[in-house]
Design a protein that fits this description.
heterotrimer; A mainly alpha (about 240); B mainly alpha (about 55); C alpha+beta (about 150); A: about 240 residues; C: about 150 residues; alpha+beta; OB fold (Dihydrolipoamide Acetyltransferase, E2P); five-stranded mixed β-barrel; extended
Amino acid sequence: MFRFANPNRFMNWSGKLLPWCAAATAILLIVGTYLALFVAPPDYQQGEAVRIMYVHVPAAWMASFVYGVMAASSAVALIWRHPVADIAAQQSAPLGAGFTLLCLVSGSLWGEPMWGTWWVWDARLTSVLVLFFLYLGYIALVNAFDEPTRGARAGAILALVGVVNLPIIKFSVDWWNTLHQPASVFRIGAPTIAASMLWPLLIMAVGFTLFYVTLLLVRMRSALMAAKLRALRLQEFQAA
Amino acid sequence: MAAIAQFFDMGGYARFVWPAWGLAVIVLGGLLIDSVVTYRKRRRELDAAEERKR
Amino acid sequence: MTRKRKRLYIVLGGLALLGVASALVLSAFNDNIVFFYSPSDIAAKQVPDGRAIRIGGLVETGSVKRESDGVTLDFKVTDGNTALLVAYKGDVPDLFREGQGVVAEGKLEHGMFRASTVLAKHDETYMPPEVVDALKRAGHWQGEPPKQSSAAKP
């Protein structure tokens, strides 16, 4: 498995995969947006306001998913000391923070007209805000050290500590009563969302996922080029 | 024209629906631009460094 | 600013963010983790008058009335077993409807609940209106609220 994570091999295969990922992302997001805004029906209770869902829910899923990737990469980096895993974790963080911010703000914009409030401190909303702070804390911590390996180590530990928040986010709506409603899609039993709304939602969600994969590959390639650049400059310096 | 206006009105929820979608464009677009700009910069720097080496 | 000092500040900033995060978790773990109580909880707990609490449940069908002052809204919140009368002055959210979920902030006053804020809580069902109509016509609609409680029927 680590064969693909060798930096040179990674540059090789990611360069070939990238255009396909980018094209698939563009198609899915365009189709998803069209279906969400023009084809999907209004909700029987929420009317047209339900169209916020097609932004909010994929962003919420990605907020947790990206954190999962970040924590898993951090574990790999800590246990096997693999530099590409550190890069994967570090380059995931700004993307995850972006998805979380989008989830929080779109949720607020949805809560005001439907629930009658921009924000409440219920278990779901609070745990997602904590997730946002975890991303910011991770980014700050990784950059707080002069020596990159130490920053990476500290960040990896924080990422792993924060992983306890993921089940709290997922199950907060089942464990405690909250203003936020329980899950409509990833639940025991059939989804409680009509197929005409579920399909656009899933297409948007896959589009968001591929968007993340595409940008992660781009950012990891940038980081690997930066590492190579540092090595070349060191050689120049030593030669001079 | 009425159909277009009706679409943008979003059943009276325009001031919530469009900012949510607008923010999605800003956040995703911002991440995309940041990633691509950094990538191009690194590529240029690396090419220049490799050129010097030769 | 020396680099050491800068690092110190960045670490402190990171720690502060973490502190905020943990504090939020901890405070949530205490009282806030349960966002509201059901009318049955309220009846069982003997909550004293005047304490600020949140109650939640469904707005009982047929219970919503405007008081004679034209401002105050009366409705009953039910959890299927117990219903609690709520009085509220102010605007209700768009999803405030009979049979739908509701969370009210306020305090108990002589056996009824005086709300200062009313929030709507919707369930996890998303459907186009036509499908709901079709289900209702076919008699398969299960989304109706529990029609219970003796005194509430108009």
